UniProtKB/TrEMBL annotation:
UniProt keyword list: Cell membrane, Membrane, Transmembrane, Transmembrane helix
Chief location: membrane
Membrane-spanning ranges: 15-37, 49-72, 78-98, 119-138, 158-178, 190-210
Signal peptide segment: none
Pfam families noted in UniProt: LysE (PF01810)
Protein name: L-lysine exporter family protein LysE/ArgO
Lineage per the UniProt record: Bacteria, Pseudomonadati, Pseudomonadota, Betaproteobacteria, Burkholderiales
Membrane topology qualifier: Multi-pass membrane protein
Native source species: Paracidovorax wautersii
Localization annotation: Cell membrane
InterPro entries in the cross-refs: LeuE-type
Amino acid sequence: MWTSSFSSAAVSSSWLAGFTVCLSLLVSIGAQNLYVLRQAVAGRHVRACVVWCVVSDALLVALGVAGMARLLGSSPTLAHYLSLGGALFLFAYGVFAWHRAWFATGGGLDAEGSRAERGVIGVLSALAVITLLNPHVYLDTVVLIGSIGARQDGGLKWVFVVGAASASLMWFLLLALAGRKLKGVFANPTAWRVLDGLTGVMMFVLAWWVGRSLWD
């Protein structure tokens, strides 16, 4: 195996580095996490959502480790526009969340257009948009996590990617479980409105946090 030239300690260290770095970023509440939580509470296509999130995280981290992090890191202009796009995306998501909280009929259950009628393709398409069209995702996975993983020696880079994917799998399984446990709470439409209100606040704070670097 390609890991045979490395000690078990080195392999474990690289795996743990990928796991901890990825998990530390995943636990911050973002648009993707909240969408998966909403689907878990509604009980719709949760397994497909978890698979999508884990696979997309693994691929984006692998791209970063393979060299995209170095490319993006060497282009301050591109990094600037990624930050700007990420701030605008998060701000827009916050506006939509507040719109659902205040104006959607029937609370969050009807907020995204008859959730009960949405098939797996519709749910995954929305999740893909939230994941891939959010520039902040690339700053986290490709640039930050990828640049750390790229420092690993040889084949240990891919052990790092496996560690990151393991953290993603654990986190989204926990998120799905939490959503299932909270299903009774969210039977009340008011709970959805509260969640959307808090989501809006968190998105605005994240937008400010990402955008402030543009003016430093």
